[in-house]
Write a structure and sequence with these properties.
Blueprint (H helix, E strand, L loop, with lengths): L1 H12 L1 H27 L3 H42 L1
Length: 87
Amino acid sequence: MSWLKKELGYIKDSFSQVIKGFILFVCATSGLGCALLLRHLGYSGTIIAFTGIVVEAIGLFLSYLFFQKHFTLEEDEAMQKGKKSFK
């Protein structure tokens, strides 16, 4: 039973990371979902392709912005740790 509490504690501590991962998943699959919805509604292939590509491009741009912020913070932290270890 203690291992369950420990695992739930890990999930609680990383809840923000789970939410960010879900948002990235939605951004990555949004174009496909949009295309499937439009196909179900009976739109032509040209409209489906154009809309799917536009939605996917927006999702990729949002993912890029998210990852750029994430990696910039990690690089800054790593550089600060490296500078401290050499002194």
